[in-house]
Specification:
mainly alpha; 2 domains; elongated
C-alpha cells in the first residue's frame, strides 16, 4: 500500500464503485447516473444481459469481484456488452457510459486495485450527423443535463425552457414582476409562459426577494448605457443575453458530447 492509502483495496466491484463515487465530488444526481452506468457494466462482466427500461434502475446488479476486470476475457466481455447496448441505446448515451467506466477504471488503477485496463480498444460509437440533432432532447439526455453541477441561474433557465416550451427570447425577456408563482405562469399581458414543478422549485431561489427587474441576470454589473429595463435595480447587473446563455449552455454540456443547443430544450408542446 502507498503512504496515502487509508483502507484495504475493495474485493467487490460494487464496493469499488461506491468508493470511486464517494471520492468523485459529483452532485447527488450525477452520482446516481454514474452508478447506473457502472452497474450496467457489472452485468457485462457477469456475462449476463443488463436489464433495460425502467427495470434497469430497479434491478440489483450481480455481486462479483473487482478482479474480474483483470481477467483475460474481461475486454471481450465488455466488447460484447457494447455491441448489445449499441443495438438498443442511442450512441450518445452509450458513449457516456463508456466514458464513465474508463474514468472509474483509471481511478482504480491509480490506487493499485487493478493491473490492466480492459477498456482499451473500446471505441466510442459514431454519433449522428449534427444536422440530425435538432429535435427535443431525449429523457435520458435531460436527466444527464439536470444532473450537471451547474449554477442556479442555468438550472432555472434550462428547466423553464424545457417545461414551458417557450421561445428562448421570450424567457430571457421576462422580469421578476411578470411571474405568478402560485399559478406557475406569467401574468398578463404578454405571451403566456407556464411551467412545472422543477421550475417552481428553482425560481424562488433565483429571485431571492427581487420584486422587479430582469429575471435572468449576468454575473457582472451592467455597462454604462444599459437601458433601465435591462438592468437590475437591486444588483446593478444586466439582463442575460441569448448569446451568453448559449455560450454557458455549450460550456456546461461539453462533457456530454456534441449537438447540445438551447433550442433543443424546448419540449415541443
Amino acid at each position: 500500500m502507498t503512504g496515502t492509502a487509508t483502507a484495504l483495496p475493495p474485493v467487490e466491484y460494487a464496493v469499488a464503485v461506491e468508493r470511486y463515487l464517494a471520492a468523485s465530488g459529483l452532485a447527488d444526481g450525477s452520482r446516481r447516473i454514474y452508478r447506473i452506468a457502472l452497474d450496467t457494466w457489472a452485468w457485462a462482466l457477469a456475462d449476463r444481459p443488463a436489464p433495460t427500461g425502467p427495470e434497469r434502475r430497479r434491478a440489483r446488479p450481480p455481486v462479483l469481484p473487482l478482479a474480474l476486470l483483470d481477467h483475460p476475457d474481461a475486454a471481450e466481455r465488455l466488447r460484447a456488452a457494447v455491441a448489445r447496448r449499441g443495438a438498443d441505446t442511442d450512441p450518445r448515451t452509450l458513449n457516456r457510459e463508456l466514458s464513465t467506466l474508463r474514468a472509474a477504471v483509471a481511478w482504480w488503477r491509480a490506487r493499485g486495485w487493478l493491473d490492466g485496463d480492459p477498456t482499451t480498444g473500446l471505441l466510442p460509437r459514431p454519433l449522428p450527423e449534427p444536422a440530425t440533432a435538432t429535435g427535443p432532447l431525449s429523457p435520458e439526455d435531460l436527466r444527464a443535463l439536470f444532473a450537471l453541477r451547474a449554477p442556479l441561474r442555468e438550472q432555472a433557465l434550462w428547466h423553464l425552457l424545457h417545461e414551458s416550451g417557450a421561445a428562448i427570447e421570450t424567457v430571457l425577456a421576462l422580469d421578476t414582476d411578470h411571474l405568478d408563482p402560485p399559478r406557475r405562469r406569467t401574468r398578463p399581458p404578454g405571451t403566456p409562459v407556464h411551467w412545472q414543478s422543477g421550475t417552481a422549485r428553482l425560481l424562488p431561489l433565483l429571485v431571492a426577494g427581487r420584486a422587479t427587474g430582469p429575471l435572468f441576470l449576468t454575473d457582472r454589473r451592467a455597462p454604462a448605457g444599459t437601458p433601465d429595463r435591462d438592468r437590475c435595480p437591486y444588483t446593478g447587473h444586466a439582463r442575460l443575453s441569448y448569446r451568453r446563455a448559449a455560450e454557458l449552455f455549450t460550456a456546461h454540456t461539453r462533457p456530454l458530447g456534441p449537438g447540445w443547443t438551447l433550442r433543443r430544450l424546448r419540449s415541443g408542446r
